[in-house]
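Hi U.,

Before I forget, here's the chain from the pilot set. I'm dumping it here mostly so it's searchable later in email.
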Amino acid sequence: MGGAKLPPSPKDSFPSPGKRSVATTVAPCRGRGQGWGPEKGLSCSEGRRDWSQGVSPLKYVRPESIEQALEQLASGVALGGGTTLAPRRNSLETVVDLQGLGLSDLEVAGGKVVAGAGCSLQQIVEAKGTMVEALVEACRREAAWNLRNMATLAGAVLACDGRSPLTTALLAVGARAVLAGGEVIDLDDLLDRRPLAAGTLVTALQWKTKATMRYEQVARSPADRPIVAVAVGHTDGAAHRVVLAGFGDRPVRVARAEKALAADDVRAAGEAAAEAYAQAGDAWASAEYRSHVASVLVRRLAAGDKAPREKG
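Structure:
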């Protein structure tokens, strides 16, 4: 070709396996709290892994009692199923394996469901028929089968972001968290406490069996995380709970919509939902889109619309 130089091929523009440059990978940050207990807050930039330095040493401890766990969590990160910690393995120094504490039971008795912190998500899915059907469906949407068999209930909730179907549904049925020492708090309050302070350990979540709840979501595909999700629930004739999801660092309750439903004003409930997501724009959807869909879903669920749910 007359000695003319050809432009470099695409493969020549990047380091080859034999000439690897220093690369960093940003570990996913799904929420402020990971595991069941306290953890030092890590930003996504702090979770970067420098592959040129190899894998850092990791201290592993496995307490045999709640007391030992609380002591060890003062300087370590709670390890349940490990699904949220594995991607950040190189940023961790000490993990406290909580699987030996006997907190994986799922019981339905005395008018309530008591799910141990170490209960797997798949246990909830397989308990279909003993609890709210929409809650089971939301749990199924939370993760694929492989992850559901590993992920723990408390870990999934504490690591949630605003696109968590499971946490959305649990808020709608009025779930409460049981802490080591016996304190019981609303799940709404627990999410606000993330990351949990040292000495705090979630041992179980509980909710009433007579809870009623409907859940719907809009996503790119039936199996995808929601762009907008709504759950409307109540317990034993108590006031409705209206929960929006699909944006931000956690699902949120909409107090104005709940007050509107208490007055049987479905239209006002939809307007309150639209206002709550009026600024909820990001790379996934515009604020206008989310606001409109939130309003439609709240009105549909509050009116008891029996429209078919997505399959997938």
